Queue: 4 jobs
Job 1
Amino acid sequence: MTEKIEATEMDHDRKNLDFILDIPLQVTVELGRTKLLVKDILQLNQGAVVELTKLAGEPLDIFVNSKLVARGEAVVVNEKFGVRLVDIVSPNERVEKIL
């Protein structure tokens, strides 16, 4: 009897999980940031270089729906850019970022 109840609960949990698996999420990889004045933005032209706050070789921040979840490194896959995850942010660290 207990096994049948556990199987039913597992089926219910699986259906709940299946329900959320198709929810789209926005994934963003941030190379770096900077602040510029409006006059500096207006003076930008093709070939201009904008210096970012991150150093070359530093891990890239990976956000899901604007929340930091991981860090990674840039890679090239089939002539497209990608990101290899090197560190998953702990739940404690995520909470610290919010506070």
Job 2
Amino acid sequence: MATKEVRRHPRREKEFRVEYTVISGSSVLRVLEARTLDFSVSGARIETRQQLVVSDQLSVRIEVPDLQVFRQDSGGGKKYQTIPIMCFGRVRWVEPGQGDGPLRAGIRFERITEDNRLYLSRLLEKEPAEKSS
């Protein structure tokens, strides 16, 4: 029987561009790409084509909408510019992809500034209607 996972912070399904570097156990540091499937102020579920291992330490950069800077398109919708949220994270779980598809991983944010944590909180409340550009 599966156990129910309990989270401290609610997650929202949001897709943002992610760049990360595995900083544990690697002699070669490379910037890798992923995207969020959902996130909260304490972590994110990402999708990536690179192999990750539970407990890997990551340097993470997530491009999120800048709630202050946007332009309106011809239909009246808002197009947001992006700003980076930077932090360190740790891989909590990894789920292999189907066939040659991308894998999914749960990342817990560590060493994130209070300003960035507050911004993520605001972002979760605001829910921009348009994708960032």
Job 3
Amino acid sequence: MDYVHAFWVGGLICALVQILLDKTKLMPGRVMVLLVCSGALLSAVGIYGPLVDFAGAGASVPLLGFGNVLWEGMKKAIDENGFIGLFMGGFTACAVGVSAALIFSYLASLIFKPKMKE
């Protein structure tokens, strides 16, 4: 059942975001920022954590999950370091994911020789 819950929750999130992209004039970059901020806000009020526990990767893989990771890192760093943790918690929590994305995208660019659109 874990796979089923991950599938329908992740699919619902993706479908709602696709509707948002299709029905509004928001650019994709702004929608991505909206998703990350919404994930952090939902985590701050205690809604997104139980959803991640319920749906697993279906809730943690979309960009809402990235906002959740940032919030959890900030909360932990604030508890450990006080006010300065507000500025360093998000970086330490997401460093591995961001580093992996940069490294793998660079390797892909070496393999596939990307070109600019004309």
Job 4
Amino acid sequence: MTVIVMLGVGMAAMGGAFFAPITIVHPAMGAEIITVAFVVVIIGGLGSFWGVVLAALLVGVVRGITIHFVPAAGEASIYVLMFLVLLFRPRGLLGERIEKFE
């Protein structure tokens, strides 16, 4: 297990070293992608693969339509969608009910 982790970390370091001369490298790289991925997982429901797939499609369509009509509200639309889904379905779209907590 340790060898696999070391191999993965080494490959990531090598990829970063090869990518650095091509583009600008900074500590906050990928923050935009991670934020959208977090929203997709929350909307889809924790523990639900198909919920995340459905949420990814929904977020992509909502964001694309919003950017087409109101470009300034494109980023905010996914958070409004997350708010609405959590307002009506607190577990997410296809999230499983956890008996221990409810």
